[in-house]
Write a structure and sequence with these properties.
- The structure holds 2 protein chains of 2 kinds.
- Chain A is an alpha/beta fold.
- Helices cover 41% and strands 16% of the residues of chain A.
- Chain B is α/β, with parallel strands linked by helices.
- At the A-B interface, helix 19, helix 27 and helix 31 of A face helix 1, helix 2, strand 11, strand 12 and strand 16 of B.
């Protein structure tokens, strides 16, 4: 960013003046601290008005480094000449914004600085929000959504015109997401209102910092612009143990019940342990199993996103007081508040990615000079390989790279509406602004114009809604909002986090009829609850519950006497195995010298596989076919994660059907895909079966009624504002939204398959729920490298995949077969004598 | 295509998987809740839904008329999403509608969304109509009404098996009366477990779910 507009008082200081003014130097030494080199480096960059990315592990005084330049600048200003809002801090978590604000109070108070720090989140009372607009604090700590709201207000340009600095926390966690897109577009706006401001990005260790450096600064046509880079000193290498048993390693499953005594012992040996699991249902089960072993009644708590907020706050507060010995949690605690007392992190199940593992380990022991303690608990044989590969990668300092996305068009649509809410805009100027954001730098003008048309009238080719237009062109050629009411609707719907439709879980005593009253335990996804039949049991909030029925937006349950729940949640982990880690697992598999460090049952498993079938080398795809019982199986091992395998399964079964090989179903896990049917599939031409051309017509035909794809469409439609969850005065429930978005999808696809919203849905699905991009890479990688084995019986490597089948008997998507079954049940009931 | 034939109050009716009812003895085809121009109604309030719902619904009516060649067509009310909906049809849609209306004797039953269907449509407008053992009206009556064929409720049902679920529109009947699924492209649905449905039938009724190629009979 240029600094030609810098007021004189902020001009680069005398180079001989110390970076740390006396009061600050005194404050550091009074606490027995010395400023760290990266903190000084950031001061130096700030003095020159340069934007900078700080990459440092947790515990290195990173947040303070981000704020120090602003504190020094503000302390040097005479109060009356102070800009209105000086520093804006943005965090992905509102709890983190609140926590950082509390941490800033200490230096501000102890040095007696006349600086006002405030937070602004969804919880900030209306009165204070109002006051903040008129009398802004010096530093405002907020979230991307709140920034979008501020930018969409009529006086946004005045509110921000004195802005000097923006601090972006945990940038690694969201720069490459839709939330990152929303914030990037907001930053592009801010650069218009306050052209001289500098930015500080704070990030955990990443494989490649370049995308984050680009994110921080406006891009120019044909030229890559990067913020400066400062790296903090690396902390001590973590100590990572992996539970291993030479006696028993399960073949499949994700619960690691066999290892719970080890986990319990690790808790006993820790002050406070964070126990990470990959899914909510896994958190529930782990919590239950630990309590069965918890003879000493150690305070062990449970934390996940579906628990009632009050319950979560209670756990967090107990944790902050140091009252707990362990918390079983999901990714809800991946980021966030530092708990000093945590001295060990336990990861149950596969880590999925090396960077994720590093972050989770970093939650233990926020002191750089002492190694973090971590325990990995693989739940099955493949996970043993994955844990070993992840440990090797972390110790070698190698992390997963990311596939960079293009900025999402649905987010752009929301932003365009927000811009119009603030003031009429010129399309040329807004386009120039949008492509200054790194994620949108390649956005064609035609696509931008289609997005504006979409916001204005829906952008339909064959029929127009001109008379209901939300944006209209003024005689001067500016786009303006057609009605102020639209700004109100925009404000109610801002944001890109689309929650699944949820139902309240209400607990009733058994005697009462289902359907009224009862304490709310939390919320669960509607799609999970809809598949339950009254009498089914499942685990939630640490107890086994019996499902009684759904009324309106609540699901009614009562306590069950069963010790075990009958219905597991089928939801797999949110994060698929990373490409990087998958590559390392394939390499380890292909290298028998590396098997020595594996537990005996795992080593034997691979040796017998080698002897009976084949261990593919790292570039190959092994396809095995064999009979079992009355069925024929085809099992392949791409190691590309469950999502990509599920998509592959959908497409391959279509092809097998066309070849009249009559597949009956398939199941996918993180490592393998298993398909079964009545005929031997070994005779098929595997090169043709796995050819990349499946991503053409076959994919297209499947997408027409894929439930996952429709869910992706729904999210895009909501973000883009086609469907409004909230209207002034009312709120649609998730139940209504789910249904109508499917109808809209069908009609739009039939009449205008090239519509911009379907285009953005495809873009989303390719990297999201369907992982088409990764599948495409895999098909390319294995071309000409498919090795097949026809076996007389199941191979060792295939066992885990086949064990999943007994849990999940149908093809990956809802199918008309379900209707047949329901009908047959009725007939059976009627014919019983 | 295999159809399900059921008896309601002694009359034999065919349930078409496309969501229409055909009465062979009277050569009468029945649609419920077409909700023409629901899309543009939403556009007025700022949600620019794809403006193709009317033509989509019309194309499906067209196909069903071609299949059954009825002498009479009954639209069971809420044919238009609101009082002004007919004014928002474009010329092409009006032309298709006029052509279809000329292909058979049309009876437009008044609904709560369209108490007075436009008169240029052709055909007859009625509050309700009785033919043989059946009476056709929009809103099901609260009392036990033998032979009543109604719409209004948009019934649908979710089937859950083995960790999967599927939601479909359906006919609902206890052999005395019948409620039809909504036919309009954007018409939403009401679960058959809802009180509004259960109070009509008591506890003994069947749901006939619309599949891709056939109708499935399922316990409600």
């Amino acid at each position: 960013m240029g600094h030609d507009k810098l007021p004189a008082m902020l001009a680069p200081a005398d180079p001989f003046e110390p970076l740390l003014p006396a009061p600050f130097a005194g404050w550091f030494s009074s606490r027995g601290w010395a400023p760290r080199p990266h903190q000084l480096a950031l001061l130096d960059h700030a003095r020159e008005g340069r934007s900078v990315l700080l990459v440092a592990p947790t515990g290195g005084g990173k947040t303070l480094a981000g704020f120090l330049p602003s504190l020094i600048e503000l302390s040097a200003l005479p109060a009356r000449r102070r800009p209105k809002l000086h520093t804006l801090y943005i965090s992905p978590l509102k709890a983190l914004a609140v926590d950082v604000s509390r941490n800033l109070e200490m230096p501000v108070a102890e040095m007696g600085l006349p600086i006002r720090v405030e937070t602004r989140t969804g919880d900030t009372p209306p009165g204070r929000r109002q006051r903040q607009r008129h009398v802004p604090p010096d530093m405002l700590l907020t979230t991307p959504e709140q920034l979008a709201l501020l930018l969409a207000s009529r006086d946004a340009n005045k509110f921000f015109d004195g802005l000097r600095a923006v601090v972006l926390d945990e940038l690694h966690a969201f720069h490459n997401t839709k939330r990152g897109d929303l914030l990037a577009l907001g930053l592009a706006r801010l650069a218009q209102f306050a052209p001289g401001h500098r930015r500080v990005g704070l990030s955990a260790t990443v494989a490649d910092p370049a995308p984050l450096q680009r994110y921080l600064v406006p891009q120019k046509a044909g030229e890559e612009v990067r913020a400066a880079l400062v790296r903090g000193a690396p902390g001590a290498a973590p100590e990572i143990a992996i539970t291993a048993s030479d006696a028993y390693v399960p073949w499949a499953g994700h619960l690691a019940i066999h290892a719970m005594p080890d986990v319990m012992n690790a808790i006993r040996a820790s002050k406070t342990a964070l126990i990470f699991v990959n899914t909510r249902s896994q958190a529930e089960r782990t919590f239950q199993h630990l309590w069965q072993l918890n003879e000493e009644n150690l305070p062990i708590a449970l934390h996940h996103g579906s628990l009632a907020p009050a319950q979560r706050r209670k756990v967090e507060a107990a944790m902050a007081r140091g009252d707990l010995r362990a918390v079983v949690c999901t990714s809800t605690l991946d980021l966030g508040i530092d708990w000093g007392a945590v001295d060990r992190v336990i990861c149950i199940g596969a880590p999925k990615g090396a960077a994720r593992l590093v972050q989770r380990i970093g939650r233990a022991n926020h002191r750089l000079d002492e190694p973090s303690q971590a325990l990995l608990v693989p739940a099955n044989r493949f996970e043993v390989l994955e844990c070993e590969a992840a440990r090797d990668a972390v110790l070698a300092g190698e992390l997963d790279g990311e596939q960079l996305r293009n900025g999402a068009l649905d987010v752009l649509a929301q932003h365009v509406m927000g811009v119009a809410c603030a003031a009429p805009f010129n399309a040329d100027a807004l386009y120039a602004e949008v492509i200054s954001a790194a994620a949108y730098r390649d956005l064609p003008r035609a696509d931008f114009d289609r997005v504006v048309e979409f916001v204005a009238t829906g952008g339909y080719a064959l029929k127009s809604y001109d008379r209901y237009a939300k944006l209209r062109k003024t005689p001067e050629g500016l786009w303006r909002l057609a009605h102020p009411r639209l700004a109100q609707t925009y404000r109610l719907n801002v944001g890109v986090i689309i929650e699944e439709p949820m139902l309240d879980i209400r607990l009733q005593s058994k005697g009462r009829p289902a359907g009224s009253g009862g304490r709310t335990l939390g919320q669960l996804e509607e799609y999970f609850l809809e598949q339950l039949v009254p009498g089914d049991t499942f685990v939630f909030a640490g107890q086994v519950l019996e499902f009684r029925g759904i009324r309106e937006t609540s699901a009614y349950v009562s306590k069950s006497n069963d010790a075990e729940a009958h219905v597991p949640s089928y939801m797999g982990g949110k994060f698929p195995l990373s490409t990087f880690l998958a590559g390392r697992v394939r390499e380890m598999l292909a290298n028998p010298d590396a098997w020595g460090k594996l537990p005996t049952p795992v080593g034997d498993w691979l040796r017998i596989q080698h002897w009976r079938s084949l261990i593919p080398n790292a570039g190959q795809l092994l396809v095995e076919t064999f009979p079992r019982g009355s069925r024929e199986f085809l099992v392949c091992y791409p190691f590309e994660g469950r999502l990509a395998h599920q998509t592959l399964g959908m497409l391959i079964t279509r092809r097998l059907e066309r070849l009249r090989l009559r597949p009956l179903g398939f199941t996918a896990n993180e490592y393998a895909l298993a398909i079964w049917g009545l005929r031997d599939m070994g005779g098929a031409d595997m090169d043709a079966l796995f050819d990349e051309d499946m991503l053409g017509d076959d994919l297209d035909a499947w997408l027409a009624d894929s439930a996952l794809y429709k869910r992706t469409f729904r999210n895009c439609a909501i973000i883009a504002g086609l469907i409004q969850r909230r209207q002034p005065g009312t709120e649609k429930t998730g139940r209504q939204v789910t249904f109508s978005s499917d109808l809209i999808y069908d009609v739009l696809r039939e009449h205008e398959p090239d519509h911009i919203l379907l285009q953005t849905t495809y873009q989303d699905a390719a990297t999201g729920l369907l992982d088409i991009a990764r599948l495409a890479q895999m098909l390319k990688r294995v071309k000409g490298r498919i090795v097949t084995r026809r076996l007389d019986r199941v191979s060792p490597l295939a066992v885990p995949a086949l064990l999943e089948i007994s849990k999940e008997m149908v093809a990956g998507e809802a199918h008309e077969d379900l209707l047949h079954e329901a009908e047959e049940e009725l007939v059976k009931e009627a014919m019983r004598v | 295509m295999s159809d399900v034939l059921i008896e309601v109050n002694g009359e034999t009716l065919l349930l078409d998987p496309a969501g229409a009812l055909y009465w062979p003895a009277e050569r009468t085809l029945v649609f419920a809740d077409l909700h023409f121009e629901k899309g543009s109604a939403y556009a007025r309030s700022g949600q620019m839904l794809p403006p193709y719902d009317t033509r989509s619904t019309l194309a499906r009516i067209d196909a069903l008329i071609a299949r059954h060649t009825p002498a009479r067509v009954i639209a069971l009310g809420d044919s238009f999403h609101d009082r002004n909906a007919a004014d928002r049809l474009d010329t092409q849609e009006r032309a298709i509608l006029s052509r279809l209306a000329g292909a058979a004797e049309w009876i437009w039953i008044a609904g709560n969304h369209d108490p007075a269907p436009p008169d240029w449509l052709g055909g007859r407008i009625a509050e309700e109509i009785a033919i043989g053992g059946l009476v056709f009206r929009h809103e099901p009556s609260a009392s036990r009404a033998a032979g009543e064929i109604a719409g209004h409720l948009h019934p649908c049902k979710t089937i859950a098996r083995r960790g999967r679920s599927l939601r479909r529109r359906c006919f609902v009947s206890d052999a005395t009366r019948l409620v039809m699924p909504a036919f309009g492209a954007y018409a939403g649905g009401l679960d058959v477990r809802d009180r509004a449905v259960r109070t009509l039938f008591g506890d003994m009724f069947l749901a006939y779910l619309l599949g891709a190629r056939r109708v499935y009979t399922v316990a409600a």
